[in-house]
Amino acid sequence: MYNVKTFNAIAQEGLDEFHADYQLNQTDDADAFLIRSVDLHGYDFPKNLKAIVRCGAGFNNIPLDVATENGTAVFNTPGSNANAVKELVVAMLIIASRNLFSAAQYAAQNSGADISTRTEREKTQFNGTELTGKTLAVIGVGHVGARVATAAGALGMHVIGYDPYLSANDAWHIPTTTKRAATLEEALVNADYVSVHVPKNSETTNMISTKEIALMPKGTVLLNFARGGIVDNHAVVEALDAGHLKRYMTDFGEPEILNRKDVLVTPHIGGSTLQAEANGAVQGADTIMTFLETGNVMHSVNLPSLEVPFVGKYRLTIMHQNIPNMVGQIATLLAGADVNIESMSNAARDKVAYSIIDTNNEFDFDDVVEKLEAIDAVYRVRLLKK
Ligand SMILES: NC(=O)C1=CN([C@@H]2O[C@H](COP(=O)(O)OP(=O)(O)OC[C@H]3O[C@@H](n4cnc5c(N)ncnc54)[C@H](O)[C@@H]3O)[C@@H](O)[C@H]2O)C=CC1
Ligand SMILES: O=C(O)CCC(=O)C(=O)O
């Protein structure tokens, strides 16, 4: 029986995925956590915790180094909510260009017998601009950014994308009409709208600050539906006050940007649609079951991908440091324990490596696992039986 602990509201569709060998929220000492935005920095991970799956894209709420030291694989569910974010961004582009919020507020407060005469006289204050023909810079052209680029192109916008780390797979999803910027500066200098879709990390924190905003033409609308802190709020406020930025639309409210007419804040609802929540929860539950039952790794953010058909009777999975002679030490130890290796696969990612070893012969399971765990630089050993 595997134990899964959930945090945040996980869609029922995902909870229903778990088969009879799983129990949910029966213990804190879980094999896996299924989470959304809960901040796990400072959380004391149980030693038994083998996997954390974030239903969604951003994993800056999980301390990866701490998880790795604990032998815990961390996953996300790429693309599960990308369409939801795209639709919200499209709404925000239109709301910003047509002054929809102030126009609706005016209409709601406007009453009296002469309402239609006054409306026709005063409505020019809400004159907008059309998106067609305008330029949108998309910063980060992954699952969300590529969809935003496609939708903006369909609205007749010129799209310029900046993403120095774009994966070959993601590149297939970008419309050919999207112009590629070699630098952030090149993306920003002619943009009427700038939309940020990068993960939050040490490189992207304050990626859009005073210098970057100054590169944008006067009157640019800035959108941040990625994470708070990627855009420097103080720089935004200064640029709005100076009339350089026209509007800031974001999913991440902080005191310094609240209660301004030129800022529209939504309460982190980019991925909050029934479809996205169901997608993420189902994908997350499947990820947990695959990893716990087969040891195969897909969509991990701290382990390399490694998928091997589970053909033998027994499988050892070993998460360890990516340093010389680990595979040699493991193979020598297994040979000494009379384990006949049917297949052995190893992959590495940055400082972490992962090995999958299949065998058909019985061996002293506890003794071998204990000895493997005693190798310096091994984070976790698991024995799986078919
Ligand atoms: N508001 C919300 O509810 C949601 C917010 N998000 C946020 O949006 C981010 C992006 O989501 P996805 O597109 O699904 O992720 P993704 O991983 O598919 O795409 C991110 C892209 O950013 C690029 N990138 C990374 N560092 C960069 C840099 N320094 N400069 C330019 N490009 C860079 C990557 O190469 C990648 O192509 C997530 O990390 C998350 O923080 C995602 C979903 C919902
Ligand atoms: O709705 C959620 O769980 C947050 C979505 C999100 O921010 C993400 O996927 O990165």
From TrEMBL:
Pfam families xrefs: 2-Hacid_dh (PF00389), 2-Hacid_dh_C (PF02826)
Protein's pathway: Amino-acid biosynthesis; L-serine biosynthesis; L-serine from 3-phospho-D-glycerate: step 1/3
Record's keyword terms, sorted: NAD, Oxidoreductase
EC class of the enzyme, as a word: oxidoreductase
CDD domains: ACT_3PGDH, PGDH_like_3
Entry similarity comment: Belongs to the D-isomer specific 2-hydroxyacid dehydrogenase family.
Function: Catalyzes the reversible oxidation of 3-phospho-D-glycerate to 3-phosphonooxypyruvate, the first step of the phosphorylated L-serine biosynthesis pathway. Also catalyzes the reversible oxidation of 2-hydroxyglutarate to 2-oxoglutarate.
Name of protein: D-3-phosphoglycerate dehydrogenase
